[in-house]
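User: Could you go from structure to sequence for me? I need the amino acid at each position, not a summary. C-alpha cells:
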C-alpha cells in the first residue's frame, strides 16, 4: 500500500510521478498542521498575548481555559498549552476516537464521529459546566475544526440525542441543504449557532478555527458555536413546511420549535449581539493554504503547476471525467499547462451510493479517473482526504496511473463492475494503491492532483 516516501530523481516515469504525488500531499498536510497553525496565530510575550491583529493583557490575573471540538482538537489544544504554559488553568476538548495527543492541563474527551454518541454529550456537558460562572478577566480559547458538529452534541433540555439524530436523518433523506440542516440543528442545540459564546460571557473568547467547508464560512464550520447565527425559528418553520416534515418530527422537537416561534424560547444570538463584543474568531488554516503548499512543492520538483480551485464540488464521477479529459488535453496540446505538469485542486465532491461496496469519495474519484487515463504513459491521478479518512475505510484515498486498469484486470478486478458497486476500496487494495496515512489530526477537506510527465 502506498505510503509517504521521498521522491526519486526527476525522471518522467510513472514511479517518479507516484512518489511525487505522495510527497506533494505530505507537504500540503504539513502546511495545515493544527499545532503549527495555532503557533502562527497566537504569540505570547510574558503577560502580552497577540492573536492575529488583537492584543490581550494577561497581567490582570484572570483564569485561562481551553474548550473545543473537532478532529484537530487535540493538537490545537496541545499548542495552546505550549503557548500559555502555567498560565493555563485547564480545559475540555471533544475529539474523535483515537485522535489524541499528549496534553497536561486539558482533558481530551474521545467521542463518536460521524455519528454523535453519549460520550460526546458528556463532554459537551463538561464544557458547559466549565464555562459557567466565568468572570470578565477570564479568557477562553475555543479550538474548532472539522467534525465538530457531530463531536459536540448537546440537545436542549427536553430533547434526547436520539430525537435530534432523527431530525437530522429526516432532513438528509428529504434532500435538505447543509444550511437548512444546520439551521434546524442550531435551534435544538445548547451550544451551536453562537450559543457557546453566550455561555462563556462575560469572559473574552478567542476562537481558533480550522476550516473544513467550501467557502470557509465561520457559521458553518462545526455549526458556528462562537459565531453569530443568521437563521431563526421562523426559518426552521419554513424548512419543516417545505419538506412536509411536521407530522414526522419527534413530539419534543416540534414542541420546542413551536415555543421558539411563539417567542417563549430565546433566539440564537444574532449579528450585533453584545455577546460577541469580546469574541475573536480567527481562521488559522484552510484548504487553500494546503493547495499553495502543494504548488510550492510541485514546482520544487520541477513541475509546472496550476491551482484550479479550493472549492471543487459536484458528483465525484463527473469531476473525475473532467480530470481524465484534462490529462489528455495536457498531453496533446499543453493546455491549460504544458507538461511536466501538476494540476492541483481541493474541496469536497459527493458520491451517489448505488451499490453495497466499500470506499469513499477520494477512492471513487481515482477509480473513475483511472478508466479515462487507461493506457496513457506518464499520467498519475491522486486524491486523498487531509484528515486521513475517506468514507468508512482506513484509507485517505488512492493513486492511479495509465497502467492501473491493466494491472487490475490481471488480478481479476473489473473496474466498471466495482465502480457500479461503489467498491473502490477493494479495487485498489490488491494493487497496493490505497493511500494510508492514519489519522492526520488535521482536516481541510480533500486534495486532488493530476500529474502529467
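Assistant: Here is the amino acid at each position, in order:
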Amino acid at each position: 500500500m502506498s505510503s509517504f516516501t521521498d521522491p526519486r530523481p526527476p525522471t518522467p516515469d510513472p514511479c517518479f510521478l507516484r512518489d511525487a504525488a505522495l510527497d506533494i500531499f505530505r507537504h500540503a498536510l504539513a502546511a495545515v498542521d493544527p499545532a503549527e497553525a495555532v503557533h502562527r496565530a497566537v504569540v505570547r510575550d510574558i503577560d502580552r498575548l497577540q492573536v492575529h491583529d488583537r492584543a490581550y493583557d494577561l497581567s490582570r490575573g484572570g483564569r485561562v481555559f481551553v474548550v473545543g471540538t473537532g478532529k484537530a482538537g487535540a493538537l490545537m489544544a496541545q499548542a495552546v498549552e505550549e503557548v500559555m504554559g502555567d498560565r493555563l488553568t485547564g480545559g475540555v476538548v471533544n475529539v474523535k476516537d483515537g485522535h489524541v495527543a499528549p496534553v497536561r492541563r486539558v482533558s481530551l474527551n474521545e467521542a463518536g464521529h460521524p455519528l454523535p454518541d453519549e460520550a460526546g454529550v458528556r463532554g459537551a456537558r463538561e464544557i458547559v459546566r466549565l464555562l459557567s460562572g466565568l468572570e470578565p478577566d477570564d479568557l477562553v480559547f475555543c479550538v474548532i475544526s472539522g467534525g465538530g458538529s457531530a463531536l459536540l452534541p448537546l440537545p436542549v433540555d427536553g430533547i434526547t440525542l436520539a430525537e435530534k439524530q432523527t431530525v437530522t436523518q429526516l432532513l438528509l433523506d428529504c434532500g435538505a441543504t447543509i444550511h437548512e440542516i444546520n439551521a434546524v440543528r442550531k435551534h435544538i442545540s445548547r451550544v451551536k449557532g453562537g450559543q457557546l459564546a453566550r455561555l462563556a460571557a462575560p469572559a473574552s473568547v478567542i476562537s481558533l478555527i480550522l476550516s473544513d467547508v467550501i467557502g470557509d464560512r465561520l457559521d458553518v464550520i462545526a455549526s458556528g458555536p462562537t459565531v453569530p447565527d443568521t437563521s431563526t425559528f421562523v426559518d426552521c418553520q419554513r424548512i419543516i413546511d417545505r419538506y412536509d416534515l411536521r407530522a414526522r418530527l419527534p413530539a419534543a422537537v416540534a414542541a420546542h420549535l413551536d415555543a421558539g416561534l411563539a417567542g417563549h424560547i430565546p433566539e440564537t444570538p444574532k449579528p450585533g449581539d453584545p455577546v460577541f463584543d469580546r469574541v475573536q474568531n480567527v481562521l488559522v488554516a484552510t484548504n487553500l493554504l494546503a493547495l499553495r503548499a502543494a504548488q510550492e512543492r510541485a514546482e520544487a520538483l520541477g513541475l509546472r503547476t496550476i491551482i484550479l480551485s479550493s472549492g471543487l464540488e459536484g458528483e465525484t464521477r463527473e469531476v473525475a471525467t473532467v480530470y481524465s479529459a484534462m490529462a489528455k488535453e495536457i498531453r496533446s496540446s499543453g493546455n491549460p499547462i504544458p507538461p511536466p505538469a501538476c494540476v492541483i485542486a481541493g474541496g469536497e465532491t459527493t458520491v451517489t451510493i448505488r451499490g453495497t461496496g466499500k470506499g469513499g469519495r477520494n477512492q471513487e474519484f481515482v477509480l473513475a479517473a483511472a478508466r479515462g487515463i487507461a493506457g496513457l504513459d506518464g499520467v498519475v491521478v491522486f486524491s486523498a482526504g487531509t484528515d486521513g479518512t475517506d468514507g468508512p475505510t482506513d484509507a485517505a484515498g488512492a493513486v492511479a496511473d495509465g497502467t492501473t486498469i491493466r494491472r487490475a484486470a490481471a488480478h481479476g478486478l473489473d473496474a466498471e463492475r466495482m465502480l457500479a458497486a461503489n467498491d473502490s476500496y477493494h479495487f485498489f487494495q490488491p494493487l497496493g494503491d490505497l493511500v494510508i496515512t492514519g489519522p492526520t489530526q488535521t482536516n481541510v477537506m480533500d486534495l486532488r492532483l493530476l500529474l502529467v510527465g
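One structural detail worth keeping in mind: Residues 14-31 form the longest helix (18 residues).
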